[in-house]
Amino acid sequence: MTTVRSILDTAHPAAWHDLATALGLRRHDAPADDDWTEFDGDGVLAIRGVDDGSADDGRVDLQVVVADLPAVRRSLEGTGVAVRTTTLADGGELLAVDVAGAPVTITTADRAAAGGATSVMPIRYASSVADAARVFRAVGLRPRIAADGGGWADFTADDGGLAALHHGEDGRTELSFEHRGDLDALAARLRAGGYEADVVDEAYNRTVLVTTPDGWRLWVNGTQEDLHGYSRQD
C-alpha cells in the first residue's frame, strides 16, 4: 500500500472542509476536527488547523503512507540520502527525508483512501528534478509523465494519489489536484456553492482555478492528454 497524503495548514479549517467536499472529496469516518481532519479522494487531503497569523498558515506538506516502513527505510538508505526517524505519540514511527531542501515524510496507516475522480497532487519544487525523482521512486511512487526537457515529472501511488516535481529553487510544496471528469461541471458545482471558479485552457490540458478560503487560487488540473514535449513513463 502506498498512498499520497497532502497536509494543509490553515487558519480556516472549517471553510476548507466545505471546499474539500465541494471538490468531490469525502470526509473520513472520524468526526470533523479543527486540529486534524482527513478527506478521501484518490489519495488523502489532511486539513490541520493553525492559529490566525501563524507562520505555518498556508503551508503544505507532502506525506507518503506505506504498508512496510522498514522496507521503505532500506530503499531510501540505498539512495544515499539521510533518513531521520521520529517516534510518534502512539508508538509508531515517522520517517523524514529531505527532497529539494524540504522534508517528505513517510508513515504507516491502517486504511487506504476511498478513491474517487479527484486526485490529490502535491507539487514539490526542486532544483534537480532527477535527484528528487530518485527519492520519490524509493518511497514507492511510480513514474507516470515526464517533460522531455527534465523540468517536470509526476508519479502515481498504487493506493491513491499523485505527486509531482517541478523545476524551481525554493523547495516549497504547492497544493493541487487532478480531476478525471467534466471540468465544466466541476466548475459549475463550485460556483453553485459560492466559490469563484473558472476553467482555463493551458498548453497541455484544461484547469479549474478556484479561490480558496485563504484567498489564493487552487489549481485543479484535468487529465493531461496533450503529450507534446512530454513522455509517458508508465
Mean pLDDT: 94
Helicity level: 10-25%
Q: What strand line-up does the widest sheet have?
A: 2-3-4-1-5-8-7-6
| CATH homology superfamily name | 2,3-Dihydroxybiphenyl 1,2-Dioxygenase, domain 1
Strand content: 35-45%
In one word, what is the shape? Answer: globular
Low-confidence stretches: none
Number of domains: 1
CATH topology: 2,3-Dihydroxybiphenyl 1,2-Dioxygenase, domain 1
Number of DSSP-assigned strands: 19
**C-alpha termini separation:** 18 Å
In quaternary terms, these chains amount to single chain
Largest sheet: 8 strands, mixed
What's the SSE blueprint?
Elements: E1 2-10, H1 13-22, E2 26-27, E3 37-41, E4 43-49, E5 60-66, H2 69-77, E6 84-87, E7 93-99, E8 102-108, E9 118-120, E10 123-126, H3 129-138, E11 142-147, E12 152-156, E13 162-167, E14 173-174, E15 176-179, H4 183-192, E16 197-201, E17 206-211, E18 217-222, E19 230-232
Parallel strand pairs: 1-4, 5-8, 10-13, 15-18
Antiparallel strand pairs: 1-5, 2-3, 3-4, 6-7, 7-8, 9-15, 10-14, 11-12, 11-19, 12-13, 16-17, 17-18
Which key phrases capture this entry?
8-stranded mixed sheet; 17% helix; 2,3-Dihydroxybiphenyl 1,2-Dioxygenase, domain 1; globular
Plain-language structure description:
The chain has 234 residues and is an alpha+beta fold. The chain has one domain (2-175): 2,3-Dihydroxybiphenyl 1,2-Dioxygenase, domain 1, CATH 3.10.180. It is built from four helices and 19 strands. The protein has helices spanning 13-22, 69-77, 129-138, 183-192; strands spanning 2-10, 26-27, 37-41, 43-49, 60-66, 84-87, 93-99, 102-108, 118-120, 123-126, 142-147, 152-156, 162-167, 173-174, 176-179, 197-201, 206-211, 217-222, 230-232. The chain has an eight-stranded mixed β-sheet, with helices on one face. It has a six-stranded mixed β-sheet with strand order 14-10-13-12-11-19, with helices on one face. The model has no long low-confidence stretch (mean pLDDT 94).
